[in-house]
Design brief:
By secondary structure, this protein is of the alpha+beta class. About 40% of the residues lie in helices and about 25% in strands.
Length: about 625
């Protein structure tokens, strides 16, 4: 197969991202050299301009909270006004383009309200930030597969609206990936379990990840997999459980050390990581202890029991079960009519979650065999395989998660496509003018279930111009909605008497224009080299620092290990490395580091001998 034909599957998660690829033996996830597949969806920016992604960035979060960006998925395709809940808890700066324009007195020029994340004075859109994560996923896949990767299937929660899907697609493009298909996560989960290939069944997919929850009901019949309904919340997940634990600890810290105690951003980040670690530990242990160093000798320690965690989680899990009932209602099914429940997302490892889901559907139906962190990426790989022509015997049918329509006279929402309609689909309706001689109409595209336009989400606006003047009610304007297989919306308007038409792929009010995406692609390509060098320099400096500290320590531990000639050589190499660390040439630093390593070899050897001796001393012969 040519390189161009390879398509990988990517689960671009709120908390973690990972890739899968189809092999003749079935789908597998892409792992790094250490065997790990999950890449934390976290990006850290250092003041010198370098960017790190994944576990290293997550570890940075404590020292560098304002410049560590996580949960970007929550910002995708959103306006700042949609994000009030998140802005309270995200430590990094999120601003709206309108807000910035207003402050600068240039509001008129700005039509859309883009969300920007501001780090070290630089403004970036969520699409660009997600692209940074996707680039890392791509790079790891390329390293593991030993070939270039340029095409991908990317999954999104079933509940994602049009703007969020488009933002995901744009992120892929910015990362240098042609997005062949956007697939709903529950559909991917069903593919990963191979449920589509067994006998006909009705399956529920319960997906509780870090930041999103959804339950989808799928019908599998005759090799066709159809989403019957989906309900969820893009603001419900493991992060909320972490926050419960954080609030518990923060409250107790304040009542012990005074209500006035202000948490620094670094302490908040540390608390978040501790809370998450405690939550994960409680899945396998009856208790977890969190210790917070508040400085000035104050260390706060608290043990949390599983029952206590379950009590704190109850309201969130109740909420997921409410969504389950709504989705079942929409699909016209009772819990008893569901044959299997597939568990997806890291939080479905929590025993309490499994128990509650089992209580609703029947414990025997709950499927947890495939690693819940990997199941979506594996399914994305299966879908990629289908697109590569490796497997042809399945047809996927998704549904649109929310109704779509346009604003009609008086600010009402006129629905053209109802929620849970199977995609691809199209619908059209004829509208007219209300004013004599009107030559243009504004078409305001909306998404949502409410009746008033003001209560629905605005996806964008466009104008049909050049309508010949006619009396009010004369023009026949046919508005057509088409949702393609990726769930992306195209809207067209045609005045039937004159043949005037306008058609757009909706650029969501909070989305990027084609030109902006292209500019970002160019910028990211232009910056790829300096970004890589900066990253490399940071890694090298860290490594050099470690070596220099080890040499200093060894010189104290085994002062006699080197001859005076060897010592001279080592001192020279150390001095050279220190000088080169002041400059920005990775090759030069690397060469000096090797010199130090070589010159320190006798020292390392002597130190190892000493350790061996210390280990042996004091042991009886028969213990050895
Ligand atoms: P996902 O978005 O699917 O990657 O899920 C990530 C979420 O799952 C995060 O909130 C994690 O803290 C959580 N998680 C991962 N492993 C476990 C575990 N063993 N127990 C509880 N929660 C977990």
């Amino acid at each position: 197969m040519a390189t161009d034909d390879l398509i990988i599957g990517i689960d671009l998660g709120t908390t973690n991202s990972l890739a899968g690829v189809m092999t003749p033996a079935g789908p597998v996830v892409v792992r790094d050299a250490a065997g790990s597949a999950l890449i934390p969806s976290v990006i850290a920016f250092t003041p010198d301009g370098a960017v790190t992604v994944g576990a290293a960035a997550k570890a940075h979060a404590v020292e560098n909270p304002l410049a560590t960006v996580y949960s970007v998925k929550r910002l995708m395709g959103k306006g700042v006004q949609d994000l009030a809940e998140d802005l309270r808890v995200l430590p990094y700066a999120v601003v709206g383009s309108r807000q910035v324009a207003l402050a600068e007195g240039q509001l008129d020029e700005i039509q859309r309200d883009l969300v920007w994340v501001r780090v070290n004075g630089r403004l970036m859109t969520p699409q660009e930030l997600s692209a940074v994560i996707l680039k890392e996923v791509k790079a790891r896949a390329e390293a593991a597969l030993g070939r270039a990767v340029t095409q991908a299937v990317i999954t999104v929660p079933a509940y994602f609206d049009d703007a969020q899907r488009q933002a995901t697609r744009d992120a892929g493009r910015i990362a240098g990936l042609e997005v062949k298909r956007i697939v709903n996560e529950p559909t991917a989960a069903v593919l990963a379990y191979g449920l589509d290939q067994r006998q006909d069944a009705t399956v529920a997919v319960y997906d509780l990840g870090g930041g999103t929850f959804d339950l989808s009901v799928l019908k599998i019949a005759g090799g066709v997999c159809q989403v019957l309904s989906t309900h969820g919340d893009t603001h419900l997940g493991g992060d909320d459980l972490d926050r419960e634990l954080m609030d518990l600890i923060a409250g107790e810290v304040r009542s012990r050390y005074g209500e006035h105690l202000e948490f620094t951003p670094a302490t908040r980040q540390a608390l978040r990581l501790f809370a998450e670690a405690a939550k994960i530990r409680i899945s396998d242990h009856p208790t977890a202890t969190v210790e917070v160093d508040l400085g000035e000798g104050r260390v706060f320690s608290r043990t949390i029991a599983r029952e206590e965690f379950e009590a704190l989680s109850a309201k969130w899990i109740d909420r997921t079960l409410e969504h389950c009932r709504l989705a079942l209602g929409d699909a016209g099914k009772t819990p008893a009519q569901i044959d299997r429940v597939v568990m997806v997302g890291g939080c479905t490892r929590i025993p309490y979650v499994r128990r509650r889901v089992g209580e609703l559907f029947g414990p025997a139906k709950v499927y947890t065999a495939v690693n819940p962190d990997e199941v979506v990426a594996l399914g994305a790989a299966v879908q990629a395989g289908i697109l590569m022509g490796l497997k042809r015997d399945l047809l996927l049918l998704d549904v649109t998660p929310l109704s779509l329509g346009i604003e009609t006279l008086g600010g009402a929402m006129g629905k053209l496509i109802l929620r849970n309609t199977t995609v691809p689909c199209q619908a059209s309706e004829v509208f007219t003018t209300y004013v004599d001689g009107q030559t243009s109409v504004d078409i305001h595209v909306l998404q949502g279930e409410r009746e008033l336009a003001a209560d629905c989400r605005s996806l964008g606006r466009f104008q049909l111009r050049g309508i010949p003047p006619m009396p009010a009610g004369g023009p026949r304007i046919r508005v057509g909605f088409l949702i393609d297989a990726n769930g992306i919306l195209n809207v067209s308007a045609r005045e039937e008497r004159s043949g005037r038409e306008a058609s757009v792929q909706i650029t969501p009010s909070h989305g990027l224009t084609r030109q902006e995406v292209d500019a970002m692609v160019k910028e990211s390509l232009a910056k790829a080299r300096p970004d890589m060098v900066a990253h490399q320099l940071i890694d090298l400096r860290n490594e050099a620092g470690r070596i220099l500290r080890a040499v200093e320590k060894a010189l104290i531990n085994v002062p006699q290990a080197l001859s005076s000639e060897q010592r001279l050589l080592l001192d020279g190499a150390v001095a050279m490395l220190k000088t080169r660390l002041q400059q920005d040439d990775p090759d030069q630093i690397y060469a000096a580091m090797n010199l130090v390593n070589d010159a320190a070899m006798p020292l390392t050897q002597a130190q190892m001998d000493q350790v061996m001796k210390q280990t042996v001393v004091g042991k009886k012969l028969e213990d050895l």
